[in-house]
Structure formats: C-alpha cells, structure tokens
Amino acid sequence: MTLEPDAAYLALKARDPRFDGRMFVGVTSTGIYCRPVCRVRTPKRENCRFFANAASAERAGFRPCLRCRPELAPGLSLMDSSQVLAQHAARMLDGMAQGRGAGSIPEVAQQLGVTGRHLRRILLDAFGVSPIEYLGTQRLLQAKHLLTDTDLAVAQVALASGFASVRRFNAAFAKRYRMSPTALRRERGAAATEGPLLKLGYRPPYDIEGVLRFFGARCIDGVETVEGQEFSRTLCLPCAGKSLSGWIALRFAPERHEVHVRLAPSLAPAAVAVLHRVRQALDLDADPQLIEAALKNGLPPEPRPGVRVPNGFDGFEIATRVILGQQVTVAAARTLVCRLVERFGDLIETPFPRLARLFPSPDTIARADPEAIGKLGIVRQRVRALQVLAGEVHAGRICLHRGAPLSSTMDALRVLPGIGEWTVQLIAMRALAWPDAFVPTDIGVLNALHTRDVGQVEQQAEAWRPWRAYAVMRLWQSLETGA
Length: 483
Prior knowledge:
By secondary structure, the protein is α+β, with helices and mostly antiparallel strands. The protein is built from 22 helices and 9 strands. The strands form 2 sheets. Strands 5-9-8-7-6 form a 5-stranded antiparallel sheet. It has a 4-stranded mixed sheet with strand order 3-1-2-4. Helix 3 packs antiparallel against helix 4 and helix 3 (84-97) packs across helix 6 (131-149). It is globular and about 65 Å long.
C-alpha cells in the first residue's frame, strides 16, 4: 500500500482500522513503531515515518510497540499487490516461519520458478526488504506474540517461531528489540492459566454472522460446534516431528476488531501454526474495501457488509468435504462427513461435551478398507477419489495449505480420478485460500444469477476479478436471505 505521508498521518489521527496492517508508523522521538489504531497519544507529524510493513519499520531501526502489538495486525491478502509473485513468496516465507513448506529461501525460489537473485529483487520491490529480513521479522513478531500471551518456555518459543537454536533466538531478539525475551515476559505480567489466550486482528467490516452461519451449517458432530459468537473444534497438527492434538475455541470481539483464540495446553508448542490456520479459516487478512469495490457490478445486494470466504483449519479435511459434497446438498454432504468421522476419527478428551473426535488423517483414510468406507453410503467413485487424494497428501506429493504453489497444486489435483474442475476450484478457494477461485457450474451460483448459461456466468464474472471467490460467497448468501 502506498500513501503520501500527509494522507497516512490523517489515517493515523483518525485511528482508522481499515489501514491496520497496511501501514505502520515509526516515531523518531521514541524509536518505536505502532499500528495506526494504537491508542497512545498521536505523535507530532514531524516525528512520524510511515512504512508499508513491519519488516521495513524494523529494518529502519524501530522496535514494536508493547501496547498496540504490531504482531496482532491483520496481514496482507494475496491480491493486495499487483506483484502477485511477491505475495506468493511472502506466503511461503510465512510458512517457513512456522516450520511448514519449503525449508530454505533457495527452495522457495525454486518452487516459484525463479532464481534466488530474482526472489530477492521482487521482495525488495514489493516490501523494501530482503527475504532474510522479511523472514526474520515474521519469526521475531511470532515469538513476541507467544512470549506475551503464553507461558511456554523460552526454548519452546524459539522452536515454535522457527529458530534453529535458543542462542540464535536470544541474540536476534536482543539485537532487534533491545531487551531479552525474559525481560519482555516480566513486563507482560501473568498469563492465562486455562490454556493460552491469543489475539488476532482483522479489518472491519466483518460479517461475523455470515461466517458463523456458514460454519454452523457444516459442523461435523464431535469435531466442531458453533454457539453464539464462539466456534470450537478439535485439531491435530504436526510439530517438531510429531503430531499434537487438542482443541481450540474462537470468540469474536467486534468492539476491538479482534478474534480471541483459546487453545488446549497440549497445542501450545504449535501455537504459531494454530494462529496461521485461524487466520486462514476466518479469512482475517481480507481487505473489505478492495474487495467490495470490485463486486459492485452485477451481484445481488449485500445483506451485511464485510463478506469473507470461510476457509479450513486443515487442507485435507476441506478437500474431503468438497469431494463428499459433489452433486449433493450441504446437509447430505455433512451427513457423509459425520459418518466418516464417526467411523475413522480418533477419540479425544476435551472440556467441551460435544467435542470428542479428531478428523481422520490422510494416512488413516488411505489405508482404510474401501468397502468399510462404502458402507457409510459413499459411492465407489467418491471412495476412490478420496483414497487416492489421501495417499498423495500423506506422501507429500500434494500440499493443501495457503502457502502451497497454486498452479502446480491445482494441476496435480486435476489428474486424480473423480476430481473435476468444480472440485479443484472449491479446494483452491477453501484449502489454498485462492481469492479468485470460481465455480461457474455450481448450482447455487447459477440459481442466484437466475440462469443455466455457464458461458454467460463466466463472462459476467470477469468483472469480479481478482475476488471471484468472494462473489461466490455473496451469491450463496443471497439464496439464504432471498435477496
């Protein structure tokens, strides 16, 4: 985002939450950088320097504010920049910061099909920092988040934030923030004792009711629940070569434009990965101002501002839901998924009476007896599609998360049996978080546009690029509200 300094200062004075995460202000008199929503006294204009991202502010020598906490700011959505390649690189570096995806910067460049030198060039053009500086800032901010909001040992914080050793973590933290990790922890006071409570920010407006209704209609018995403005579920994810399982509970705090995340103590070592999954699942990095400007042409009226695309907490789980949802209603697909979980999901203890199972792993589904899956009412073609995909995901040949290479992943899905373009696009939309995914053959989309002419729908949708996934959500919502 590029703003003239005077315009940026006006946004700072207004504490406009629409600019949160899209600019940061460094105050030369204190050496600290803040979010534009920070509640401290507004600094003088001559003391302000404005930056497009936290990494640029830290490169200039500023330390993060301990009050507004820049690590809580919403991130950039994939299409915010015209340099899409740079955004892909940033997402893959974010994956590295949480120990997922490519293992080194040369591997990121290789997956993107560019040289390391070109990767450095595009990051400098887009963000003003090198890949190493961007990655370092992400890791340190994640560590600051965990030190403030959890009781994890410093060694665990270092590992969860992607540092190879505690010594390197302590040195990097002290050099960048001019205090030790333990000193920061002393300043924050006592942490919660019922499991870590973490916070994530989003840009308003946000259609909380629409997102919770979407999840509620698709809740898997034993795995997830929606009650009021709280969403809870079980979760299993890899961490340091082993699997951790537990529960998470999410509650919206609309007055602060935040989501509060409580997680089981067993998941605390993987807190960074959990936060990344929550960001994706709730689409917290979306920018409503950019999206809604592109969706004015030819779409039904918006029932509530702030449409989001609810994604998933696990890519394989989302792909399974999509496969079992082929050519059936949402209710019928939910029934099939619930049967699959009841038969193959492991039991887990939680403080929530309605949460008692984990979603089956790819390995479990790949090794299951096809006849046992078929007895659940799943037709043979779906069983084969599900098991082949499970085998590919378990072997690591297909990765289903936001940082995965989009084109190659979609191409790999297209060659699998029983997976057509409708399935590929929905997996891209909800597992890969691709904002321009579109399903012109979807019956809901056709009904909302009052046509059966797929070619006409595709032509009409050109006006909604690069946010066609949000157009799909608007169309689905119009059927629910009768708009």
